[in-house]
Amino acid sequence: MDSSVGNKVVLKSYLLNINGNQTRVVCKADDTLLTVIRNHLKLTGTKRGCECGQCGVCNVIVNGKVMRACIVRMKSIPEHADIMTVEGLGTPDHLHAIQWAFIANNAIQCGFCTPGFVMAAKGLLDTNLNPTREDVRDWLQKHWCACRCTGYKQIVNAVMDAAAVLRGEKEREDFGRALKPGELIWGTNYPRPSDKFKVTGTWDFGDDAGMKLPPNTLYAALVHVDVNHAEILSLDIKEAERMPGVVKVVTADDIYAFGGTNKLFGAQHPSVISGNGWERPILCDKKIFMWGDVTAVVCAESYEQAEAAALKVRVELKELPALMDVEDALAPDAPSIHEGVSNVYLERRVRKGKDAAEVLDSLPHVVEDVFYLQRQPHLTLENDVGFGYWDEDGNLTIQSKHISIYRAASFLARGIGIPSSKIRIIQNHTGASFGYKLGLTCEGYIAAAVIATGRPVFCRYDTKHHVTYTPKRAPFLMKVALGADEEGRIRAIDHKSWVDHGPYSEFAPGLVVKLCHYMGALYGVENVNGVGYAVYTNQKWNTAFRAWGAPQVHIAQEIAVDMLAEKVGMDPLEFRYLNAIRPGGTFPHGHAPDVYPLPKMVEILRPRYQEALKRAKEESTETLRKGVGVAFGVYNSNVDGGDTANCDVELMPDGGVMIYNTWEDHGQGADIGTLGTAHRALVPLGLQPDRIRLFLNDTYRCPNSGPAAASRCQVMVGQAIIDGCNKLMDAMRRPDGTFRTYDEMVGEGLPVIYHGTYECVTRNVDGEIVPVKGIDENGQGMPYACYMYGLFMAEVDVDVTTGKTWVSKMTLIDDVGVINNYGVVDGQMYGGLAQGIGLALYEDFEDPARYNNLVTCGFPYIKSITDDMELIHMETPREFGPWGASGAGELPLTAPHPAIINAIYNAVGVRVKRLPAKPEKIKALLREKQQ
Q1: CA 611, CA 605: separation in Å to the nearest integer?
Q2: Could you give the 3-state DSSP secondary structure of residue 921?
Q3: What is the DSSP string of 290-348?
Q4: 539 with 500: CB under 8 angstroms?
Q5: Cα distance between residue 905 and residue 903, in whole Å
Q6: Can 890 be counted among the known catalytic residues?
Q7: pLDDT of residue 3
Q8: Cβ(527)–Cβ(359) under 8 Å?
Q9: How far is Cα 78 from Cα 186, in angstroms, rounded to an integer?
Q10: 106 neighbors 100 (Cβ within 8 angstroms)
């Protein structure tokens, strides 16, 4: 039915049964069920994700059937329909068996997709209480249930356990009573404090919080320009300003008028690059540098009015030649993307030992080849979202998904003309990031709109804009030469790489040095020459992505190692065992690792590897070939060079303790990381976990703990938490060793809040404890104190008739130090392995005109990810980690993809050196091999 006739708006009245309550809804017949559930009924447990049926976060049950509410129109909903949302299933204090099982199996990370999975599981178990694991996987695939965090295995575990509970075969454990007095939650599977809210849909994410803003809130729509490179000739906003509900169309002129430079700055100092580090405009007024650059922000009284008016902004352009990869940008006749600055704007070198090129010339076994890792999209299911306002102290306040909130304030300040001390950043509950929110996305537009209008402003990207505009993993083009002596020992590596960082340099220096840190690292290569270049292109701008820089380095290194093993005549695993770094060896930057676990990892894997090879040989057929591949992986657990974290610890009137920090949470478990660390630190006080409260991620209330990046927080923030807890207990301690109460502390005039801090330290060559320091012009230094290590094994099936590859099993032996929470670490490992499978086989982002949703970007759904993932934890204690811990989250995406590529070679004898290994690419290589 048409929603309007003449000047009349035609509505329809529905009488529905919502979560067992008879409810009358008045809406347009063409409204989606999602709009009615969220906007009309304010049931925000049903999440707004892709809005095109590709993610399943909006799954509800209608008359017994699971439906994606975003693609169901109200005109198709019958009168008196029974509609169940996650709010009708259980509450935080009265969980349904499915919700309990999700918590018990650690099947929750960021939690954004969780209500959709829970409702899909309810639909399955209502019809089949005895599903197999494959039944569960088929059902979740059928209902488009997408998760970017978990790797799916723990979700399937949860559904199976829920079925057992509902059949009466399994008892539900009471999480609150599982811990006996005096027991630690450190080293257990204790649930995250947020789990019970996430699983019941009561954990408000950015869009949910935005729906609860005051009535005078404005809605922002961004005017994106969908060309790759152009000169802006004119910008006409007059028609947009006349549109209904429009309050203001903000342009660069407004930012200049209130004293801003209209430029954003990233994490690196401009002295390290040939430009000045301020290339990225908030609002473009002279040039478009990449697809999706923004020229204006339309602020209106409603979201729909803002979006409609944005279409009326006229941008006159003169298109310019677009440089879409490093080869284009390096061409002799290539124009400069930024006037007066070379497209190759940064160089980083590493030199260790003798000249590697000369050593290679003397070696009997040398391989040399070129490798490419693609531009990987983050593909978070929660789109970019945030809002801003002036707080009661005159601070410009931005609430968003940012995962380095103190840095965000400093990145914004000059661009918007406000001192960073007057910018308050609060992290909203975040539906994943995987690193993209180290950069500024919506924050600059929100800030400009709040300043220009004086009113609160809400901004939400739709999926197309989220996918096409937010930054990506930077592609590397790498040329690597690797050589071994007669005994098969690797003696030299020479490498040269080009980093396509898009048109903006802000994180490039920190990324390029990863080549200096890690190329050849796990083999303790004595002679290393390397150079990396950062290159401007008109492709998508780039930022951090899980294991930042490591997937690029490892794809080249680990394929080259396999190639060299073959040339030497050794098995790939045994070749790694021979060459694995051991005590006395150093990384390319000249500093020693914190531990040397790799030989032991090989010993643990060896029987599994031999069995996998045997299985592959026996089960291969003429058309389906099976193979096995391995790869080493490594990553750091602190920020390169100097790193510091802070934390405040406060004794509360009831004798409990409040922890204040900015361990930003984007799904990796900052809440349980903080709680587990603090609970162990405060053992002398005898506090139960519920007596330790968390106040996180507000620059106005919490000290600077640094970014939630580089898997640094368990180490850095963990040590600061311990320091703060120790200081509080020292102040509370009476001469007889007992502790003062809150009232006694106040009565004696003693402070009740104490500041903890930690500066990252390591040992130098003389064994002295010294602060870490960055690398010099030769790539030498002591950049890190703690690392995490892994040995990956992939088993694959390759259909030689189509080139299609399926990963049948992944095995990961990890060493992330002593583990705080096993459920969280397992979840990080499974999720990272799943992302590695996607990186190896499916995911890409080359043409922003085409790669604009989850499906076209190659999102890996549950049936694309193996259910057979085996984890083995080694837990070697780290000297400088809290109680021996290191980081964890980056490790699983360092090197699963080269293990998969090596397994493909083992199966069918072709090497994919330019990812992803899509079927057509493998098929072409097979044809080439046959010729």
Answers
A1: 10
A2: helix
A3: STT-EEEEEEESSHHHHHHHHTT-EEEEEE-----SHHHHHSTTPPPSSTTS-SEEEEE
A4: yes
A5: 5
A6: yes
A7: 58
A8: yes
A9: 51
A10: no
- Residues sharing a CB contact under 8 Å with residue 610, sequence separation 6 or more, in sequence order: none
Catalytic residue among 327, 890, 920, 928: 890
> Dihedral, CA atoms, 670, 674, 680, 686, nearest 10 degrees?
-130
- What predicted TM-score, i.e. pTM, was given to this entire model? 0.97
From CA 640, how far away is CA 773, in angstroms rounded? 8
Strands 365-373 and 287-288 come out as unpaired
Whole-number Å distance between alpha carbons of 924 and 911: 11
Burial of 796 (0-12, 13-18, 19+ CB in 10 A): buried
CA–CA distances in Å: residue 610 to residues 421, 505, 885 = 59, 46, 31
Q: What is the dihedral of CA 479, 484, 489, 491, to 10 degrees?
A: -60
Q: Do 863 and 142 touch, CB atoms closer than 8 A?
A: no
Rounded distance between C-alpha atoms, residue 463 and residue 853, angstroms: 7
How far is it, in rounded angstroms, from Cα 603 to Cα 576? 11
Average pLDDT over every residue of 309-329: 97
Q: Which of 244, 521, 475 is nearest to 377 (CA)?
A: 475
Residues 6+ apart with CB under 8 A from 930: none
The answer on pLDDT for 250 being more than 50 is yes
- Structure tokens, 563: 């190639």
pLDDT (0 to 100) of residue 5: 58
DSSP letters, 675-733, are: HHHHHHHTGGGT--GGGEEEEESBTTTS-----S-TT-HHHHHHHHHHHHHHHHHHHHB
C-alpha separations of 332 from 228, 326, 343, 344, 503 in Å: 20, 12, 11, 12, 18
- How crowded is residue 165: how many other Cβ atoms within 10 Å of its Cβ? 18
Sign (positive/negative) of CA torsion 341, 343, 345, 347? negative
Assess contact for 845 and 853: CB atoms under 8 A: no
Instruction: Write out pLDDT tens, residues 791-814.
Output: 999 999 999 999 999 999 999 999
Inform me whether the pLDDT recorded for 270 exceeds 80.
no
Compute the chain's Rg from CA coordinates. Answer: 28
Counting Cα atoms < 13 Å in the Cβ hemisphere of 469 gives 22
Question: 3-class DSSP state for residue 592?
Answer: coil
- pLDDT of residue 1 exceeding 50: no
User: What's the CA gap between 106 and 824, in Å, rounded?
Assistant: 7
Q: Please state the rounded mean pLDDT for residues 430-458.
A: 97
Burial of residue 869 (CB within 10 Å: 0-12, 13-18, 19+) is buried
User: Distance between CA atoms of 251 and 254, rounded to whole angstroms?
Assistant: 6
Q: Which residue has the tokens 């894997």?
A: 605
Q: What is the pLDDT of residue 320?
A: 97
User: How many residues does the structure list for the chain?
Assistant: 931
Tell me if 165 sits within 8 A of 122, measured CB to CB: no
Amino acid identity for residue 604 in this structure: I
Residue 222: its pLDDT value, please?
A: 98
Q: What SS3 class is residue 899?
A: helix
Instruction: Please count the helices (runs of H) and the strands (runs of E) in the chain.
Output: 25, 34
* CA distances to 297, 454, 543, 818, 852 from 416, in Å: 14, 14, 21, 44, 30
Residue 105 has pLDDT above 90, yes or no: yes
Q: Which of 821, 752, 638, 221 is nearest to 464 (CA)?
A: 221
pLDDT tens, residue by residue, 573-590 = 999 999 999 999 999 999
For residue 422, the SS3 value is helix
What percent of the chain is predicted at pLDDT more than 70?
A: 98
Amino acid identity for residue 70 in this structure: C
- Determine the Cα–Cα distance for residues 500 and 324; give it in Å rounded to an integer: 9
DSSP codes of every residue in 750-811: --SEEEEEEE-EEE-TTS-EEE-B---TTS-SB--S-EEEEEEEEEEEEETTT--EEEEEEE
